[in-house]
Amino acid sequence: MILDEIVSNILSDKGCANLAAGATQLVMGDGNLDADIVFIGEAPGKKEDEQGLPFVGAAGKFLDEMLIEAGMKRNDVYITNVVKYRPPNNRDPLPEEKAAFLPYLLRQLEVISPKAIITLGRHSMEYFLPEAKISQIHGHAIRKKVVYHDKTEHEWLVIPLYHPAAALYNGGMRQVLIDDFIGAARLIRSL
User: Fold this and answer.
1) d(Cα 88, Cα 66) in Å, to the nearest integer?
2) What is the pLDDT of residues 94-105, one digit of tens each?
3) Are strands 142-147 and 29-31 parallel, antiparallel or unpaired?
4) 10 Å Cβ neighbour count for 135?
């Protein structure tokens, strides 16, 4: 399978060896390889590092709730992160760490070929919309051209949302996230 090749490339390229040294395992992604929607977070947390799957901790439970609210199941979508190893103490991924993993993320997207990408938080949004502020564009759909590793170009619908963890730290964000999530799902279904 092509995603297995990407995993092998990450391991053999020794990209972000500093992160790999402190992580339990690589967390590549999970879900439907024919998904219309790919969710992209920033990096694995403690639970994700232990289980080898993205969004399985508290933020993942909230993501699952939002999927249900929007009439979807986890196995309808594909979920991944920009950075594939857990940063120490769950710190934000550094710009050079995100840059090191972007070619692999693009290859993942190329394989899955979704209709839409939903970024979860500013770290994943910044690659697609580097000048944007999430507080100003969350929930809005934006068409964005991306160049693959082979220099071919593809256009995706990118919908930036706040990271589910935002609702865990600020209860007032919960309804904003749910509303944005349902709106994004409705928009993608209409495509």
Assistant:
1) 28
2) 999 999 999 999
3) unpaired
4) 8
Evaluate whether 93 touches 68 at the Cβ level (below 8 Å). no
Query: Which domains can be identified in the chain, with CATH numbers?
Result: 2-189 (3.40.470.10)
Structure tokens at 128: 């697609």
In this structure, the chain runs to a length of: 191
- pTM metric for this prediction: 0.94
Q: What is the DSSP string of 59-81?
A: HHHHHHHHHHHTT--GGGSEEEE
The set of residues, in sequence order, having a beta carbon less than 8 Å from that of 33 and lying 6+ positions away, is 3, 78, 111, 112
- Dihedral sign, Cα of residue 111, residue 189, residue 83, residue 46: negative
- Residue in the block written with tokens 């770290």: 123
